[in-house]
Amino acid sequence: MDEQTKLELEAAAFRRMVAHFQERTDVQNIDVMNLAGFCRNCLSKWYLAAAEDKGVEMDYDQAREVVYGMPYDDWKAKYQKKATQEQLDKFKESHPGH
Prior knowledge:
98 residues; mainly alpha; 71% helix
């Protein structure tokens, strides 16, 4: 596979993952973090780091808007639920010191 095709496939997979996260507003970040070790905010940070590596001017809020599909505060108000004690305990266990 040539590099351009690989790049296009990776970009398509990334766009599909972001769309999936935007569609699955019922899935809380803490659940994704507990299961996979990353969440929408991590993905936003990786996006921001890639932008910075390319010299693209962007801030964290702009990167989160790419991933969330709306301003983060709007997403939080509409979809984020208070974490349960069980979720918090699992997070603490799986991510000590985080």
